[in-house]
TrEMBL record:
Start and end residues of each GP-PDE domain: 2-229
GO MF entries: phosphoric diester hydrolase activity
Protein name as catalogued: GP-PDE domain-containing protein
Domain of life: Bacteria
PANTHER family documented for this protein: GLYCEROPHOSPHODIESTER PHOSPHODIESTERASE, CYTOPLASMIC (PTHR46211:SF1), GLYCEROPHOSPHORYL DIESTER PHOSPHODIESTERASE (PTHR46211)
Amino acid sequence: MIQVFAHRGASGNHPENSLSAISAALDVDVDGIELDVQSCHDDYAIIHDTWLDRTTNGRGMVRDATREMLNALDAGNGEGIPTLQNVFDLIGTKATINLELKHTYSLDKFVQYIENNINAGVIERSQLILSSFDHHQLVWLKQKLPWVKIGALTASIPLNYAEFAQKLHAYSIHMDKNFINHEFVLDAKQRGLQVYAYTVDKQRDIELVLDMGVDGIFSNYPCHAKMAINRF
Ligand code: G3P
Ligand code: CA
């Protein structure tokens, strides 16, 4: 089964990384939901950019704002910026949660946060994927949480990338749809890795990456993506 991940939630029709985007994704029974995590001054915020300016009516850097300051902002359609806890509470065990670490600091605290939610039964180990473009972070996270599924995230294909992911004991490789090729997918699969493509919205692009043998896609329009996959 090809896995469909809602990219920043169902962000094609809802504010990205918002609770409504997550709910819409759950409504269409996605396999997973991809969300971006940034550290703010005293919590973890679900927002893509380092700066507040593009997606909210606030200004400045996310990391300088307290949770209370972020709560006062509009991140689209009158919705606020979710916290990591909001996301865990909403998704729970209904879908895989793929957290992409952006500027996420105090990783010890982040790991503790995850463990607390697992111990409390809010989320399940098997339904969590951690990814990051910062491969040092991935290595560190896998050492701290040996059980966690690591999504080795790349915007290109660095030399020996599948080998790196295998050595890291990653679960999956998440890569830009424009860099995927048959040979790479085959190599990754032979190493026991899942290959997921981002961000794939158009029918033609979906067909292209499926043809290359990917195991899953990230889409801003997960409902359309599911239909396109069924037609393939
Ligand atoms: O995780 C895949 C994809 O979301 C990475 O790029 O910029 O959309 O976070 P970006
Ligand atoms: Ca992302």
